[in-house]
Structure formats: C-alpha cells, structure tokens
Amino acid sequence: MKTGAPRLGSQWTTWVPPVAVVALILGWGRELPPVAMAIIGVCLVGAVLAAVHHAEVVAHRVGEPFGSLVLAVAVTIIEVGLIVTLMAGGGDKASTYARDTVYAAVMITCNGIVGFSLLMGTLRNRVAIFNAEGSGGALATVCTLATMTLVVPAFTTSQPGPEFTGDQLAFAAGASLCLYALFVGVQTVRHREYFLPVRSKEQAVQPDDHAPLPTDRATWSSAALLLVALVAVVGNAKLVSPAIEDGVESAGLPTAVVGVVIALLVLSPETLAAVRAARLGRMQTSLNLAYGSAIASIGLTIPAIALASIWLEGPLVLGVDATHMVLLVLTAVVSALTVVPGRATLLQGGVHLVLFAAFLFLSFSP
Predict the structure, then answer these.
(1) Which of 21, 128, 213, 347 lies deepest, with the highest CB count within 10 Å?
(2) Mean pLDDT of the 256-282 span
(3) So which residues are the signal peptide here (predicted)?
(4) Taking the model in full, what pTM does it have?
(5) What is the CATH number of the domain that holds 333?
(6) Does 32 map to a domain?
C-alpha cells in the first residue's frame, strides 16, 4: 500500500467476494457436478486472497494489535458456524467434528503459521525479533485452553469416554470465554505495547511503515468486503466438504482428515497474512495472528458448541487420543522455547514445520 487506500472499484478484490457468495447461493443444497465443484474451488481460492487483502487494509488503519484481532475473531466466528452446521447434519461422525477442527486449528496455528512465518522472517533478516512478554502470555493462554478442552476430557471419570458431563462442559465453556476476554483486554488495552511489532536496529524500514492510512470510507468498505469474503470462504468450504468426505471415505482415511482439510481452508487467510507480515519483518504481527487465532478458535468455539449441544443430538467428544496428546504437549514445550528468548532463527522455524508435517502425516496415517 504505497499510496494509502487503493481504489476499491478498480480492484479484483472488490468483485471476487460477491461473486464467491453468488456461487455459494447457487450451489447451496444442490448436487454439484465436478465442473461446478471446480468453479466453487476457484471462488474459494479467490475469496481467501481477497480476505487477506481487505484484512490488511483494515489492519493498517486500526494498527496493531487490533488488526490481527479483527481477522482472528472474524474467521473464528464463522468457523463456529461451520462446525455447528456440520454437526447439525447428524451422522455418527458428527460427535468428533468440533474436537477435530479445534485440534487441527491449534496445530495449524502454533506450528504451521508460526513455522512458515519464522521461515520467511529468518530468511530475510537471519534473526526474527518479537516481544517475548506478549507472545509468551498468548502461548500460555493457548496451552491452558487446549489442555482444559482437549486433554482433560480424556481423563475425567464422571462420563464414559473422552467426554464432559453437562456441568463439566459448562465450566470449561465459561472458563474458556473468560480467558479469551481477559486476553483481549490485555492485548488491546492494559498491555498493548507487548503486542506491537518489534524491530532490531539492523532491520530496514519497510515500505508500509510510512504509507498513508486508508480513508474511513475505504476502511469500512474493506471491513464489509472482508466479512463477505470470510462468509464465502467458510460457505464454499462447506460446499466442497461433501466431496472431501467422499474422497476421505473412498480412500479409507480417518474421519479426522475432514476436520484437518476444513481447518486448513478456513485458516488460509490468516496464514497468508501472517507469512506476508513476517516477510516484511513484522514477526510480532505474525505471532499475534497465530496465537490469537488459536485462542479465539478455542475460547469462542467451545462455548458456542456447549450452547449448541443443548439442541444438537448425539454425544460431544472432545478428548484427543494419546498420539495427538503427545504432539500437543511437544508443541507446547517447543513453542515455549521459541518465544521465551524473544528471538528466533531458522532452526526454530524448521522445528515447528517438522511438527506441523508430523501432525499432517499422522492425521492421514494414525
């Protein structure tokens, strides 16, 4: 953004989100042939790229950490709607959709987004610099939420299987919501300086640093188009999910793969935005997106699913198995060693990417 807000009317990012929504409306509730499925896939990719663009416009206007918060919350709210829609569809597999999607979101954000961001940041500047105080607090919140909602249910005894009782689920939902609200308050008000981009003296000033702010009109237009694009991303992901489910079933793959693929699609706007920020030397923005998305994914999803479970039929399985539990613990340990120094090299990025690859591989081959 070299000249402030771009002219929205001349940008492809202006018309792609509405076109993607039109494709969503035309394809909703219909049996789609392969050609139509391919068109929806193209619209899905276009909506992802458009969402990244408009999120960056809004983020540039409101500044950090509010910009990262906008994208994280917007994606997560619509992700909740997708999970509830999938669970409402019923079937024996619906009981694990929430767990699979939330667990996948944690692993994608904490290993995939962080790993790729560190890779891009260290290839450009050799050492990635960020605020250990803010990133460490965010990571602690992620670990607490993930353990309480994905690990503890596997060890409770009041309910058979990796499930919470009604009272336990209500407590976990309330605690998750409180932690999320506390994190947002600390990030945006009380200790906002801990979440602002940090630069070393060796790093050059980036072109975006002194770019004029977008106008109010451009900002509100981008905010509206961001919401439209996110609806298109999640809705079109829902349309292609039956094809994904059929492909997973025909290939004999585990049901959890569906949650992994959907989470990858839904989190793709945040991934692209985080990697671009890291490439520009704003590693703190990348970590804000990664950990903020993980916190929002748990802190908002679990309360919403707990509320929806009142009218949804069937059990709600939340506890992960032993293999995923080990990966989750290893992710927490490695992440702590990454963020505590406030500096990271290519090695840390490689370690996170190996963990991300292990998560993907073991999801397809448990």
Answers:
(1) 128
(2) 84
(3) none
(4) 0.81
(5) 1.20.1420.30
(6) no
